[in-house]
Amino acid sequence: MKTLPNCTLGASTGPQTIVVRQVVAEKEKQKSLDIHVVVPDSKPAIEQIVDVFIKDVEINSVDVITDKVIVRGEFEIKAIYVACLPDRPVHAMEVKHYKWTVDIDMPGARRGMDAEATVDIEYVDYDFDEHHHHHHHHRAKKYTNYENSDNFCDDDDDCGHHHHHDHDCDDNCDDDDNDDDRNRCREFDVSVVLRVNAKVMADREVLLNSGTLPTKPKG
After folding, report:
1. pTM confidence score
2. Are 182 and 173 in contact (CB under 8 A)?
């Protein structure tokens, strides 16, 4: 019978190491945005806003610098409103590619480290004139590739939806001689609160035979 020699793993080759990906730091931050929106002249003035919401929220880049992560992205603002026209048609207008930037303090982050981020829309509020105010909350999971169903058309034709009110549309809205009133009926403010979560990762060497983890990233 042949006897095999005793062999201990690592005895002759020394300690073995592998490289693993570990999270160095993770943090979230809120960002408040106040956005002034003007309805283009190609669309009718506003009598009443039906709803304002945020869609197509995207993260375009995540950059790591010393002790900080910078997240850049964009979203689209869509407003549904009753037009200041005799038959009260419902129209829609959009502000596309609104850019935003959030910088997050991240102790331990260094240039060259990998990072990833997610963004939530926590709150949306709109304000149209001092007599027309409405707000509501939007909560969602990761807002990348977000799609929102839409039953309203975006062109200048009659959308097929009508609202009937007991009061008359403000005649000053379409009065070319009164620029202040006309502009007021074409402008509104939107407040958006973003919540951005970011984490920074680095490669670390793990010694298989020692059972200990290095305290510094590789390199």
Report:
1. 0.68
2. yes
- Is residue 109 a contact partner of residue 64, using CB atoms and an 8 Å limit? yes
Per the DSSP assignment, residues forming a β-bridge with 114 are 201
Q: Distance between CA atoms of 8 and 195, rounded to whole angstroms?
A: 53
- Classify residue 43 as exposed, middle or buried by CB count within 10 Å of its CB (0-12, 13-18, 19+): middle
Q: Give the per-residue pLDDT at 130.
A: 47
CA distance 162 to 34: 30
Centre a 10 Å sphere on the Cβ of residue 59 and count the other Cβ atoms it contains: 20
Scored b (16 or more CB within 10 A) or e, 121-141 reads bbbbbbbbeeeeeeeeebeee
Q: Are 31 and 204 in contact (CB under 8 A)?
A: no
Q: What does pLDDT average to over the chain?
A: 78
- pLDDT above 70 covers what percent of the chain? 63
Quote the distance between the C-alpha of residue 141 and its chain's center. Answer: 11
Is 45:182 a contact under the CB 8 Å cutoff?
yes
Q: What is the pLDDT of residue 137?
A: 45
